[in-house]
Predict the 3D structure of the following.
Amino acid sequence: MPSTLLDHHEASGARLAQRPWGTVALTFGDVPAEYRAGTEGAALFDDTDRGLLRVTGGDAADFLHRLLANEVRALTPGSGNANLLLSAKGKVLHGFDLHVGEGELLLSAEPGDVQALATALDMYHFTEDVAFEDASAEHAPLSLVGPRSREVVEAVTGPLGARADHTTVTQAWKGGRLRVNALGGAGSPGFRVDAGPSGARELWDALVRAGAVPAGLAAYDILRVEAGRAAFGVDVTDDVYPQEARLDEAFSLEKGCYIGQEVVAKIDTYGGLNKKLLALRVAHDDPVAPGTELGLDGVEQRSLGIVTSWAYSFVLDTGLVLAYVKRKHQDVGTVFRLGDGGVEATIVESPVRH
């Protein structure tokens, strides 16, 4: 679904941009201030284009537990986690945030992915008491990122009490229902709040009045690249193992069998990853296109890695890329050539922002 707030953003002076999944707010006019809000205050991001899959039925928890890479059955109402659906070969097909409600499991999916996720799960559905419903029409989350996120949210909701990551509380708000999920983003603490499409604009404005700074994709990409966080559909595709993309929090090594589990466990036990997502400091601040290859002087192999994300890093005061770097060339300080030019990119410790 497209964002429900695009007209509101455009009226506020936001610069919009087309991305493969739709139109997004790129910036509200001051990227440094938006970035600073994410590191010192509370940056407010529009995630109303995310999809929502509702899974119900007496066998729903057991069914998903057998398929998904992270825990399901042991979760209690109000809790949740980051989760994955892998292929039989252990590669990432879908990533989402799972929340356990009363009599339902809610999967908040990446923009444009909810139907494909439902289809992929339904392939394993035979006689179990399980039903899938695309509930995207009632899902319009806003995300706050930064150390003042709790302060801003509580100015709107009232005290929330101590909340562990991925826990959710639901309360009445403005004649409707407000779901508040303790969920960080881009390597920073934060919250995801959802008043549904009808309440999204009023909630956005209330959070801004409480001190949140509207922020766009440009600032978010800087924050996540500095944090070394992969983005689905950008850094994570169906050709990637979860360990390669550093998605450790989204899969379990203890829960037992699930689709792709044997491959994931073998990688953990024996290693053998051919590539891994790393951060590299670029010798200039010009954008680097996804797909740019990494070369190394004295090594005949043409490509030793491939760039998937670029951002200007305020911490390093230069360009920073995320790239999948091949095994044996992953040491911090290794200097590569970018593409066919002579521009250097150097592996750095990740995250670069602490």
User: Anything to note?
Assistant: The chain has eight helices and 19 strands. The mean pLDDT is 95. The domain at 274-348 is CATH 2.40.30.110 (Elongation Factor Tu (Ef-tu); domain 3). The longest strand covers residues 92-100.
